[in-house]
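Open question from group meeting: does this chain pack into something compact, or does most of it stay loose? Before anyone orders reagents, we agreed to write out a predicted structure and look at it together. Recording both the input and the output here so the notebook holds the full record.
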Amino acid sequence: MSKVQLIYKGISQIVGGPELGLLVLSDLAHTRQIAIVCDHHMEYELGLRTGDKIITEKLLPEVLCNVNPLMTSEHYEILFNSIVDGQYKALLVNKDDLSLTPLRASDAVLLAQIAKLNIFMEEHLFKRQSVDSNTSQNKMALPVNALSVEMLRHALQKAIEDENYELASMLRDEMKNRSKES
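Structure tokens returned:
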């Protein structure tokens, strides 16, 4: 299995959408990036840890990482290995015994930030899901399969309102494909 190392770049808000944000991860060369959908609670949690005054040493994630001295990049890493129903699947990989613990994608990014763990994505998934990192743009493309059902419905409604029927058709097809798979 070939994998690509990622770094956390920051949070972007979804304009005009529900209270969701995007966690932006880039490859080490900063040429391609992916976005992971997160809720406003995760935006807050990551914001606490990236602000000027970090006061999180007594919060549960930090306490748990401090209690477990093995929670370091020497022993653990994060791996994104698939996307299902618009959500990336993340694993906490124990490098000592190769055990895998599934966790929510946004929680995986938070844990990686706190414990300073390396983040990886399977190469084929990264190639399929990533977009060019164009720093001059204020917009980021998001693959349709990385949208939740709720986000697909919202985007479909907006496409119909904007009379963008080609996009509406594509979104409807994605929703149908997901309902067939369920």
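Observations to bring back to the group:
Residues 10 and 24 are 5 Å apart (CA to CA).
DSSP finds six helices and eight strands in the chain.
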